[in-house]
Amino acid sequence: MPTRTRRRLREHTVGLLARKWTLRIAVTLSGDTKRHSELAKCLPGITQKVLTETLREMERTGIVERFVYPVVPPKVEYKLTEVGLELLKLSKEFTSWFDTYHENIHKAKRTYDRQR
Questions:
Q1: C-alpha separations of 26 from 7, 99, 101 in Å
Q2: Confidence (pTM)
Q3: Which label site among 53, 55, 66, 110 has the fewest CB atoms less than 10 Å from its CB?
């Protein structure tokens, strides 16, 4: 893959991961497959539009897989892919880092704010 294409893909992926709901959706899907309405119930405050857009982008990026069943009414389920499961590992690493350094971060913020 050319360097420019890879750089754009990395920036796009970082942008997706930085969104408010992406990791929350991934964590919600960590247990099992869920329907759209189940995800919405587990994520108070998320709008239908934002949930749909984020799921589409997560599917496009290979983080989730979408299953459509040919029934009436339509049944759609979402599940983390291997890429999504690896993302959860990364999220746990971040949590571990934060748990280790949260006091340092808090102290640095207080010091910075007092100097301003």
A1: 24, 20, 24
A2: 0.86
A3: 110
